[in-house]
Design brief:
It is a multi-pass membrane protein. The chain is mainly alpha-helical. It is built from 21 helices and no strands.
Length: 503
């Protein structure tokens, strides 16, 4: 498939001095989405008391969002390529804002869970196309590395910020405001986006209007995420329901691959996976995010249940992660990627994340913040600040302009699926280990700590596996911005745009 000719709008978007303002608008939208994935965690006890959730039902306040978000990400990214990424971004903001309002006014458990599902759909639409817009706005390698560094900080540090924001809003006002606060932010973001983002026509529905493929991939991802956060987490990985749903999701995925390999106009052209950097970076992200997400969730439980921290103190405890990540992602990652290459920047980041998890795996029952928590948060922030900007550069490096939305959606999908998979596995391992220790006569605090230790050690193992994949598969090559720039130049000179080979 050839890249579309460079239109005046595309050219203006590339050279417009307002690009940086547009980047900050896109990142604000992304921050709102990422915050919502974690801000709810610290408010769950208040939500349970107010709406009468059962303990098992309470998990669906988070799960409903994850299912819709993870299942629709790839589809939303490809639709953005076809009909225009700005249109999908604006539509996603509208859906997300309306659902946030419904979440805030919910007076029953069923209403809140349903609204959270719709909110996840809006979040998928909004976030799936952002990275694709960024790499087309910033084709110069140095500018592109800096822009992706800012985006990566927002996408990865938002989890820690969400814990702090959730604690502040829940304690100062009520849990309703963790949803209401999205409304004014979304309105301002949409207003600025309408003015600053350039309209893009997309490649047209005829270039990828594959209804059957859309149905298969969305169903496969929804079944997979539901299996992870539902039966697997509640009944175990060997339960009959888990195995049947897992087999169903794999069968749907196999059907999707067969469909895309033979369709005349595939929804997701399989050529994108010919790039070893696209495939390898997404594999690394699944493993790394699966390990890192455990720090925010299980680390919060350790601070609350073992050390007795309140929601606000938990948020403040993870603040060093955000500060260090911001300093590296925004100020230094662009320089490091430009000078040493994305792969060389990624590898030490993964090492530091693994080291942080290993340290957390030895935190004692009577742990002290300065000795047992602060070093972990600093190492984690440093590792993530190095790792994720480089990883996103690599993940986008093999994508042509017409596939940028798809590549962006794929990056976000692997992050969400990796997070859901990792959290379900690690939380189950932690709970099982805790029950075993408690049955052996350990105190509650010691049993909980032992469970968290196991989870953190397994998370470190996942990160080490990500490091092994990165060493074996990834290669430094042209940046995403350079690929876009080359494609636009070729199109403007009337030459056919080529599909990049494996990097």
């Amino acid at each position: 498939m050839s890249a579309p000719a460079a239109t005046p709008d595309t050219t203006a978007a590339v050279g417009d001095p307002r690009r940086w303002a547009a980047l900050y608008v896109l990142c604000t939208g992304m921050l709102m989405i990422v915050l919502d994935a974690t801000v709810v965690n610290v408010a769950l006890p208040s939500i349970q008391d107010d709406l009468g959730f059962t303990q098992s039902g309470l998990a669906w306040v988070v799960n409903a969002y994850l299912i819709a978000f993870g299942a629709l990400m790839l589809l939303a990214g490809r639709v953005g390529d076809m009909i225009g990424r700005k249109r999908v971004f604006m539509a996603g903001l509208l859906v997300f804002t309306g659902a946030s309002l419904l979440c805030g006014v919910s007076q029953s458990s069923g209403m809140l869970v349903a609204a959270r599902f719709v909110q996840g759909a809006g979040g998928a639409m909004t976030s799936a196309v952002i990275l694709g817009m960024i790499v087309t706005m910033f084709p110069q390698p140095r500018e592109q590395a800096r822009a992706i560094g800012i985006y990566a900080f927002v996408a990865s540090a938002g989890g820690a910020v969400g814990l702090l924001a959730g604690g502040l809003l829940t304690e100062a006002i009520s849990w309703h405001w963790i949803f209401f606060v999205n409304v004014p932010i979304a309105v301002v973001t949409a207003t600025l986006a309408a003015r600053l983002l350039h309209d893009d026509e997309g490649i047209g529905l005829g270039a990828g209007a594959d209804a059957l493929g859309a149905l298969l991939i969305t169903s496969a991802l929804m079944a997979a995420v539901y299996t992870i956060v539902g039966p697997a987490a509640e009944d175990g990985w060997g339960a009959t329901t888990t195995l049947l749903l897992g087999a169903l999701s794999l069968a749907l995925l196999a059907g999707f691959v067969a469909r895309e390999a033979t369709a005349r106009t595939p929804l997701i052209p399989l050529r994108i996976f010919r790039s070893r950097n696209v495939s390898g970076a997404n594999a690394v992200q699944v493993l790394a995010v699966a390990g890192m997400m455990s720090t925010f969730f299980l680390g919060s439980l350790y601070l609350e249940r073992v050390l007795g921290y309140d929601p606000l103190e938990i948020g403040l405890a993870f603040l060093p992660t955000t500060i260090v990540m911001a300093a590296l992602s925004i100020r230094y990652s662009e320089r490091l990627v430009t000078r040493f290459g994305a792969r060389a920047t990624l590898l030490p980041g993964l090492v530091l994340i693994a080291l942080a998890l290993l340290l957390f795996g030895r935190a004692p029952v009577d742990g002290q913040f300065v000795v047992d928590v602060l070093p972990v948060t600093v190492l984690l922030g440093t590792g993530a600040g190095l790792c994720f900007p480089a990883l996103m550069n690599l993940a986008m490096s093999g994508a042509t302009p017409q596939d940028a939305g798809l590549a962006s959606g794929l990056v976000n999908t692997t992050a969400q699926v990796g997070g859901a998979l990792g959290l379900a596995v690690l939380a189950t391992l932690s709970a099982t280990r805790t029950d075993t220790l408690r049955a052996a006569g350990e105190s509650t605090a010691a049993a909980l700590t032992g469970g968290y230790h196991l989870a953190f050690l397994v998370a470190a193992g996942l990160t080490i596996a990500a490091l092994a994949v990165a060493l074996a598969v990834l290669r430094d090559g042209p940046s995403a911005g350079a690929a876009v720039e080359t494609e636009l130049e070729s199109a403007s000179e009337g030459e056919p745009a080529s599909v990049p080979a494996a990097v």
